[in-house]
What does this fold into?
Amino acid sequence: MFRRKSGFANDSLTAESRIFSSWRYTPFSYHEERQRLRRLAEVMNAESKILPPSSQNTALVYLLHPQEVLAESTAHNAACFEQIHEWLSHQSSNSHQFVQDPINAEFVLAPIQGGAYGPFLERLRNSSIFRRMARKVLVYSPDDNQFPAVRGLYTSVSHKLSASSWALPAHYISSHIHRFHFQREELNTKDVLFSFVGSSNTHPIRQEILQLRHAAAILRDSTPKSMGTKYWWQEPNAEDFFIDFREITRRSQFAICPRGISPASIRLFEVMEAGCVPVVVSDGYIFPHGPEWPEFTIHVPEREVATIPERIVQAEPRAKEMGAAARQAWETYFSPASTVNSLVTWARTILLQSNSAPPVTLKAEEYLRPRNLLAKLRFRMKG
It folds into this structure.
């Protein structure tokens, strides 16, 4: 009969694989072997279990650096990790504590950017830490179209996944995102009724918005004009655009926030910081939990773009009140001082309300949709 050898041959093995890699054929007593199996089970449970909240309701969180998963990590891949780590110093409450050992954590937060873990987070799912602790590993990704193969926080999620709490919507966090740093004292003078400054090539709805007309509105297409550039910050005059966008947004009472390559748009959070009333044009967008969104946003169906000027004029008497509420919501949920608190709150919601096994429909979409199969094939060919 098989009997366990002393010690582990490879410490990087998961607890499950240790069971099968550490046996040899020798006689043994049944009682002794049951004790050994029990100890192995305790190791597995200690590594993967979700710890309950402490008596002080302080969440114990382990922040997973991409270097712990990837053979090589770039500054871009780690940009959202670095931003969250930096904002820890701005935290405004004691609702959480970051720990040095993932075994002691209530959950492991794995921020990643730029698709570095693969189109379906393959590299994370195949990592030793995920294999040991899959039930308490949650992803954060600021990438618009990251497939939510692992439970976590994403900038754009479907109604179905949000309802099941498998994936919840979050805002954009990254040290590589251009921030405009609007201060409250500069937001008192707003002489532009509404504005939109953005690229027209990320979704057809934006072209319709740029065709709107109103005497007190500013609408500008920021699509790069230079050959070989995809984003405004790659343009030679990027600094001029930055200044122009910031000034127009600062002066605007309302700001149109249309969808782009995904239902989400970073514009929503930028204009909230600027004390503007967001006019959201995106049928599939799910708002992050927390703020009372109807109190300070106007949500326009994509098929009703032509009605935007009329809707704004009707809401103009409440513009100052709604703009102040938008700024307050940004400070409470999305600012550097509150972001980590929000992430922890949303992460706990996922752990408490969702099943650790992926929904059947999600697995079917990953493996049966042709474009997803093609993405998997390309990823494997790249190695």
Observations:
- Residues 59-171+342-382 form one domain.
